[in-house]
Amino acid sequence: MISVAFLVIVNDQLEKLRDSMYELATGLPTSDTQHRFYTDQRFLLLLLCVFVILSLSVSKEISIQKYSSVLGTLAATYLTVAVIIKYHSRPAAAVHNTPPLHSSSSWASMFSVVPTICFGFQCHEASIAIYSSMENQRLSHWVFVSVVAMIICF
Questions:
Q1: For residues 137 and 131, is the Cβ–Cβ distance under 8 A?
Q2: Are 42 and 10 within 8 A, CB to CB?
Q3: Is residue 6 part of a domain?
Q4: Neighbouring residues of 95: CB distance < 8 A, sequence distance ≥ 6
Q5: Is the separation of the CB atoms in 25 and 56 below 8 Å?
């Protein structure tokens, strides 16, 4: 179930990546995209699954994941820095716009966080495999690692 949730998110991001790469490479808007089999996001997702996910899943030891984890951390750091730079490079009038209050004032808007909570619930079971592969399996060390990971995420 975890992999399905990740693939839905990756599939959504592949579409955005494909569109931005097309605009960058050709200088044309995405509405002018020619639909070929290799520009289809399902084909890109298949390639990603075969070459990245399958190759990372073949190993019986989770210790091989530390290399891909470093790459993922660098990618997340790059994305964070890019968002901060993009935010501060906007014109001053666009930066100080206040969001409308009517969208968050409704009691029903609290249900918008349900998908995030469900995704987190689905992913928490991976912590068992991570804990079992740790060299130092003391509870205090596990708590420290978990807290540091959450601090880095937020």
A1: yes
A2: no
A3: yes
A4: 87, 88
A5: no
Domain that holds residue 48: 1-58
Stated pTM of the model: 0.44
Answer whether residue 132 is part of any domain.
yes
DSSP conformational letter for 30: G
Q: Classify residue 64: in a domain, yes or no.
A: no
Structure tokens belonging to residue 129: 């495999």
Query: Measured between alpha carbons, how far is 49 from 55 in angstroms, rounded to an integer?
Result: 9
Q: Which two tokens stand for residue 7?
A: 């693939």
SS3 call for 1? coil
Residue 43 contacts residue 37 (beta carbons within 8 Å)? yes
User: For 50-93, what is each residue's pLDDT tens digit?
Assistant: 888 787 778 777 777 777 778 778 887 888 888 888 888 877 66
Q: Does residue 73 contact residue 67 with C-beta atoms inside 8 Å? A: no
